[in-house]
Amino acid sequence: MAHLSDSKEQRIAEKLILEGLEAYIGIPSGALKTKKIKLDNVVSVEIDGYSDEYKIMVEVFARIGKLAPAHQEKLANDILKLNLAENILKIPYKKYLAICGEDAERYLTGSSWKAFAVKYYDFEVVRIDLSEENREMILNAQRRQKEGMKL
Q: Which domain of life is it from (predicted)?
C-alpha cells in the first residue's frame, strides 16, 4: 500500500500535463525534459520541462481544487525559479506554467500580484484538460495526502 503522503499519482499527472503541453505547443512528444540548471558553483534549480532546442522552460502544477497557502507559495516559487533560470542563462525562453486545475488557473490569471508577475515576466499559463480517470487519480491522491497530514 502506498504511503499516505506518496505523490506517485501526481508525478504521473505531471508527465501527462507535460505531454499535453507539448501537444498544445506543437512540439514532438518527449521534447521537454527535466533539467538541472546551475545558478552558480553551488546552487542549482531543477526545471520540470526544458528544451534548449525550442527555448522553452516549464513548471508543472498537478493540483485540482482549492489552493492552500502552501500551494500558492509553490506557484510563486515556480514563477521565481523560471525567471531566475532564464536570467542566469541570459537567453530568452518561452516560460510556461502548465496546470490541470481551474482554481490554479484563476489564481494565476486573476488580479493578485502573482498573476501580475505572470503577465509582467511573460509567462503563459496553460491548463491541460486531463481525462476524468486521471483527474480522479489526482483527487484520490490529494485525499490520501490530506489524511496523512492529520496523523
A: Bacteria
